[in-house]
Design goal:
The protein has 522 residues and is of the alpha/beta class. Among the domains are: 59-204, Rossmann fold; 291-354, no CATH class; 381-520, 3-Layer(aba) Sandwich (Rossmann fold), CATH 3.40.50.80. The protein has 16 helices and 18 strands. Strands 1, 2, 3, 4, 5 and 6 form a six-stranded parallel β-sheet that branches. Strands 8-7-13-9-12 form a five-stranded antiparallel β-sheet.
Length: 522
């Protein structure tokens, strides 16, 4: 082929390059042209590489950041759906994911909640901080999508999800779906987003070989009963959308009658194989509205409670919806009440009063992998709790006693009044007497003019706090968001004043071994 035969369809050279090449090669002998040809091939880095089609997806990584278990459940459901469609999907907690490997991933779907004042969940903290850093690398080859869970009544609604979506795009990652922010009633939004994400991925993700098993022929009624029993044994686990029906064994008020808060201790009968919970977990409780109140509303507006209505994708009668599905003060869908294991929540006093012994209630397990006892039984524990935030520590000490773990334990507890609101006082006294509770620091804010809070006790015990942490103690914080922030500030002061650290590096959240710090919001 001569240069004059080059054209735009076959050559990557424009007319200017062709003209320059003609001038350079003019007058060369065949030997010289052969040498130039070899030289150009050498500096060209090898044979010509033609453009290729986009590489098929080999693996989908679903990362979740979850404080109460909702985001984890959504991520696991998404992963299960992807696997059912033949995709190679893995679901990983952000706390177990190495942020530096993000650039190596092929496709990433993020499901993350927001807690506190727009803060990431504990297990999302490291990844969130990594991508926000100015030194974070470029991610041009990474397709991603983000789903956020939050409470739209808060100012920083789904802030963590917004952060991930914005920053990944800034780093050059390819957004395959718009950011989806979901409020408390998130089921329909998460299902729609999950379907959209899987549809986008299905065209490129190669299918794994599916195991198709022929159903056995059922030759008798006995075979049928056996098959039905096996099907029940393979039923999906209990979760928010498939709650377990537990029987109430005890409903006991653990504050005095003249206390401001009516805090309840509930004991539930749960089959051993129904759910496997660990200290630090919480229960989600679907609490029904008072049927008499629903009847009063129906009578007041003159509507038949048997009238059929549509609620989401479900059709049911209006009275049933008012009792089990709707918040009667606002008529938006009810939300699960979170109950710390072994304690009542002050936000559900009326519901707690209505629960009678032997009554059944729907529950599901809200696991919290970020709020666990350390594996080593001799690890010291500093347990900071306010109000019902003390409940998980009751379970912690019970577990340590059952396991015979010798680690030292320090309880720092705050509430309104010593005589009215000292939750589980007899339990703490028993642990103290048995030698399992080495230190107890109390702060009752309404018993005198001083008005002490747990953060004040921390400052007073600053030197001892540092000694325990230097000995490898794990520090836990459980209570309202504002209390957790106040504890953070107190710890910064302790590290700044007592240890001489720079304020910017004085938070336990920036500790090299951050596993020593765990939080749980109420």
């Amino acid at each position: 082929m001569v240069l004059s035969q080059l054209n735009g369809l076959t050559s990557p050279l424009d007319e200017r390059h062709v003209h320059a090449l003609q001038i350079a090669l003019k007058g060369m002998t065949p030997t010289q042209l052969a040498w130039v040809s070899g030289y150009l091939a050498g500096i060209g880095g090898g044979p010509l590489r033609m453009p290729t089609e986009p590489k098929a997806v080999e693996r989908i990584t679903i990362l979740f950041g979850s404080q109460t278990g909702n985001a984890k459940a959504v991520a696991e459901q998404l992963g299960a759906r992807a696997s059912e469609q033949g995709m190679d999907a893995r679901v990983i907690s952000m706390g177990d994911f190495n942020p530096r490997k993000l650039s190596k991933e092929q496709w990433v779907l993020i499901v993350v909640s927001t807690h506190g004042e727009g803060e990431p969940p504990e297990n999302a903290y490291a990844l969130h901080a990594f991508i926000q850093d100015q030194g974070a690398g470029r991610l041009e080859q990474l397709p991603f999508a983000v789903l956020g869970l939050g409470d739209s009544s808060y100012e920083h609604f789904c802030r963590t999800a917004v952060d991930f979506d914005r920053r990944l795009a800034e780093l050059g990652a390819q957004r395959i779906l718009p950011l989806q922010c979901c409020a408390l009633d998130y089921r329909s939004d998460t299902e729609r987003w999950s379907s959209d994400a899987l549809n986008r991925l299905s065209a490129l993700a190669p299918r794994k070989a599916s195991n198709v098993v022929a159903m056995p022929t059922l030759r008798s009624h006995q075979d049928l009963r056996s098959h039905q029993e096996q099907s029940r044994n393979r039923a999906r686990p209990y979760d928010k959308d498939n709650p377990y029906t537990a029987t109430l064994l005890e409903n006991r008020r653990i504050t005095t009658l003249d206390a401001v808060s009516d805090v309840r201790h509930l004991a539930l009968a749960i089959e051993p194989d129904a759910m496997h919970y660990r200290p630090g977990d919480a229960l989600g409780v679907w609490v029904e509205n008072d049927p008499s109140l629903a009847d009063t509303i129906l009578a007041g507006v003159g509507i038949d409670g048997a009238a059929r209505i549509e609620l989401g994708d479900e059709e049911l009668d209006l009275r049933h919806a008012l009792i089990e599905r709707l918040e009667l003060t606002q008529l938006h869908p009810t939300t699960v009440r979170g109950w710390s294991r072994a304690s009542g929540r002050t936000g559900a006093e009326d519901a707690g009063e209505r629960l009678e012994r032997e009554e059944q209630t729907r529950i599901y397990l809200a696991g919290n992998d970020a709020f666990r006892l350390p594996d080593a039984g001799d690890t010291p524990l500093i347990m900071i709790g306010a109000g019902t935030g003390v409940a998980p520590y009751r379970a912690f000490l019970q577990q340590r006693a059952a396991n015979g773990h010798p680690g030292r334990n320090w309880l720092i507890f705050g509430n309104r009044h010593f005589h009215r609101d000292f939750l589980y006082q007899l339990d703490w006294q028993a642990h103290r007497k048995a030698g399992r509770l080495d230190r107890v620091s109390l702060a009752f804010s309404r018993d005198g003019a001083e008005k002490p809070y747990v953060q004040q006790r921390l400052r007073e015990e600053g030197k001892e706090i540092l000694r325990w942490l230097d000995a490898g103690a794990h520090l836990y914080v459980c209570g309202a968001t504002a209390m957790g922030q106040a504890v953070d500030h107190a710890l910064v002061e302790i590290f700044t004043i007592e240890a001489g650290l720079d304020p910017d590096c004085a938070s336990l959240r920036r500790y090299p071994a951050r596993e020593c710090y765990a939080t749980d919001d109420l």
